[in-house]
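Q: Joint fold for the lines below.
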Amino acid sequence: MQPPGLIVAPLTPFTSDLTLNEAALQRQIDYVVRDCGATMVVAAGVETQEYTYLSLEQRKALVRRTIEFVDGRVPVMVGISHPSVKTAIELANDAEKLGATVVQLLAPLRPFAGQPTQSDLVAYFEAIGRETRLPIALYLNPGPGADVSIVDSIVLAKLPCVQLIKESSRDLARVSRLIVEIDRAGHAQYFTTMQMLLATLQLGGSGATMPPPASEIARHIIDAFMAKDIDRAAELQLQFALFPSKWMHRGLAPTMKAAMNLIGIPVGEPYPPYAPLSRDEMTGMAAVLKTTVLSARLSVTAAA
Amino acid sequence: MQPPGLIVAPLTPFTSDLTLNEAALQRQIDYVVRDCGATMVVAAGVETQEYTYLSLEQRKALVRRTIEFVDGRVPVMVGISHPSVKTAIELANDAEKLGATVVQLLAPLRPFAGQPTQSDLVAYFEAIGRETRLPIALYLNPGPGADVSIVDSIVLAKLPCVQLIKESSRDLARVSRLIVEIDRAGHAQYFTTMQMLLATLQLGGSGATMPPPASEIARHIIDAFMAKDIDRAAELQLQFALFPSKWMHRGLAPTMKAAMNLIGIPVGEPYPPYAPLSRDEMTGMAAVLKTTVLSARLSVTAAA
Amino acid sequence: MQPPGLIVAPLTPFTSDLTLNEAALQRQIDYVVRDCGATMVVAAGVETQEYTYLSLEQRKALVRRTIEFVDGRVPVMVGISHPSVKTAIELANDAEKLGATVVQLLAPLRPFAGQPTQSDLVAYFEAIGRETRLPIALYLNPGPGADVSIVDSIVLAKLPCVQLIKESSRDLARVSRLIVEIDRAGHAQYFTTMQMLLATLQLGGSGATMPPPASEIARHIIDAFMAKDIDRAAELQLQFALFPSKWMHRGLAPTMKAAMNLIGIPVGEPYPPYAPLSRDEMTGMAAVLKTTVLSARLSVTAAA
Amino acid sequence: MQPPGLIVAPLTPFTSDLTLNEAALQRQIDYVVRDCGATMVVAAGVETQEYTYLSLEQRKALVRRTIEFVDGRVPVMVGISHPSVKTAIELANDAEKLGATVVQLLAPLRPFAGQPTQSDLVAYFEAIGRETRLPIALYLNPGPGADVSIVDSIVLAKLPCVQLIKESSRDLARVSRLIVEIDRAGHAQYFTTMQMLLATLQLGGSGATMPPPASEIARHIIDAFMAKDIDRAAELQLQFALFPSKWMHRGLAPTMKAAMNLIGIPVGEPYPPYAPLSRDEMTGMAAVLKTTVLSARLSVTAAA
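A: Joint structure:
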């Protein structure tokens, strides 16, 4: 059995004129790889990475820089989700040339209302799978993407081109079943979210994907789990009970950017029109983070 | 710390003329208490117990018989959810006289559309709380009941009359936060569902409530957890991955009745118009149950 | 062709000790029949009538009084929706003895989660239909009741026992289709809501059901429509644009009770824990009602 | 008062290699302007136009060709909805240069889950409004876009840059109120959908937007309404009761493309992976269209 995966999606730092802050990205990626022990890094793959605001050229540049800054230390998964199938294929081809290991693709909304059928979804993934030699990570995130049933998720997982799954729901009944019918059945590796991490590992799932600095807490959970110190793993998992839930009405990107700024690895503010957390919200978050494994970084910052 | 709670809600066995099959109820309660090690039994509290089909007199008789058959071996929680507040109070008063320990009360739907506000909910629970000396178990089950936000759930949990919570969602992000802000904060004991059991115990929740025979699997999970054999607990938790998920389109009551019938503790068929599982569905379920701790009972039945 | 139907559901006036205020009910029914020209009166049929708060005996008494006070001037439709099928049948039998013309029955929620299937629904309506000689009005109101698809609604409408339909959605695409496939096809009469009244009449539907005093505005709409004064009908229909929408976060029962109190036909306050409209909200509503056909009654009251 | 608006969104015809079929677009636009009497044409504005599949260059080319083929006969509204704000502004600037009259902009989803707040929405529309001299049509379409409350819709309509609104819901209670508080209040012109057309006109809304050939039926409805032949208008409105509802599980783009192909103005098939209607579905649709104002075109085709 492989060790559990910790797939980390760096936040996208913007300069004041809303272009990519490369220095901030590089520092962040070093933190993600070195301090969080990411086993894979995601480039422009999830909405919390605010890639949807970028032009196609900016998005490609973000992917390129991410791969450069990771610099071969771990594999990179490149997001290719795009309403245009041809653009998704173009992004997959680019990813392949740049040395990506996997491409991540959202189960797409039907543009003209209603959910896509099983055969729509199969045709979509097969069409894109034919155009790239890279394995596909099926990305399940109802809202930005389709709401895929348990049965359809299993069918997609059995496609040869689909080798990973990233599940964004926190429904443990759904996830338990999919871990058994997909991951333990050998069809694809199943990854969930920070709140589901310990439960996922115990049920036999492959790990979780998340942005920093949640990934640093996750690293401690995984290490405790591997060391069979389950009490410690459970205590650590509780660090995801209040954080990020208490700030989620502001959105995950503003919340995680605030946390990174608090621990001294600044990544700037959310892309407009979304607002950064207020001073009061930051103070409240600092108080919660002080009770987590992030507290050491926090004190250094506060002292500075 | 108290040992984890296993609150069991017996299914309601009907005779062919749709009245309570008392003998089947008694056998089932003996199984629940003796073999599943229920720490509390629920009388007419959750919809899977099909109590909504009963007339008020039939419902009271079901409560009375349940308490009689439990016969003081463990405490009994009596459901008092009813659209009429006065009837709910009448049921609470009856429960008190019959020796119940707790009453269970659904966060109510607003009858004329829309969700109740926080002050509606507080006024409702306080009004009923004033009329009974028994503590209340707040029952959160969106659909039959209101969809109560995290913030409102915490406010309700702080009411002195609310001392337990039964959460029907399987959203682990929600549940993690509520365990910390309600159970570990000392406001009320938090109970979840079979699919959430191990995760709940590890995060510090109080246990779970469920019908038999899921409760027998749950007993093994709790025992392994208490014995600190977490690998075994996790392996047992996986027995809830396919069961009951694969039959949930038929509903939880028909699914659990089928499982009870398969393990030789017959509880009859669902109340019409809901249909029992087909012969093929029963065969499929038997194959899945053979891989669980219920397999021993299953073979006996098959042999008979 | 029959003239359009105006089915009116009187609000339930409670005394200060939360029993039925019979005098207030009688006055209101006189208003509904005489001034609104109701073509049918509903007894304890829709949730806005707050019947769900009543004990079974109180509910039966409300039905009996409603029929007495209508006193044969128009037919009465009696609500028999109840989670217990046997109680629903008991209510239907009572309704028949008391001289009701139709019984109204909610497409039921499945008590143990998920939507009922087409065959569940057909079995349910057929089972109840067998037990009463009265025709059934199928009541479609997702939330308190099931969310019935277009296809399943058509199947139910074709049952011989179903002769009317009360649709609570305001989805004109759905309603247009159902009017054609159900009402114009001769399977059942289709009734909608106040906001849909003129559109329903123009498309060939049978009318609408609603509480007073919306019913007085509706009477004017129907009269203008019958007189082929469509400009007037459209102008009147606009009186439902702000009223009741601006107060719907408080619920339809509190909103309509406030309006009745404002026009001098007092019906008391909502059943607790739901609160009556505040003084400011009442003032705002009075200002809106002054622009409607209810203004005459309003000035009289204001003067008093 | 202005005559009612009929804003038509031509379907996007693709060649077999999935590029724009310009000849088919031109024929269609001639039909839309000449035969349907469109008062405005939409370029790449609504999802049914399948513009989300196009690369940015292909999308710009579609806009340019649409404006060329309309050739000044009526004003053109250009869709600028794009996850990237900067790209939306770029599209607005292009639209201005090409001679567009209005730009259409979807109330955006929050990329990282949850609905945008009122201040997020205001900031978003103001930011884009500052960058173009063209008025904005606010596009309300929950799913692809945010689910904007009644109150927030009114606030957005009062922004000076917002001068039209395209509402995709078919909720007549919502639309009635918004017509009064937005259109009749003078803040913006309110446009709805085909199923809502007559109701919208009667309540004082500004018209509707839709694809062909629904637009030809709509033209007849508007003409009858203007001629005060309301019986005829209502009879015509019923032509939208079965069409397109019966095929909507296939999606609006496949359904409308099938209808265009049936009436002899071919526009090809849906963009993959979405499938065209089957032969049986086409036959069923032809039977329904035979009962509409489109029947004349249909027979010619059938004969051909």
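Q: Anything notable?
A: The interface with chain C takes residues 18, 47-48, 50, 52-56, 83-87, 109-114, 116, 119-121, 123-124, 127, 143-144, 248-249, 251-254, 271-275 of chain B (CB under 8 Å). Chain B is about 45% helix and 10% strand.
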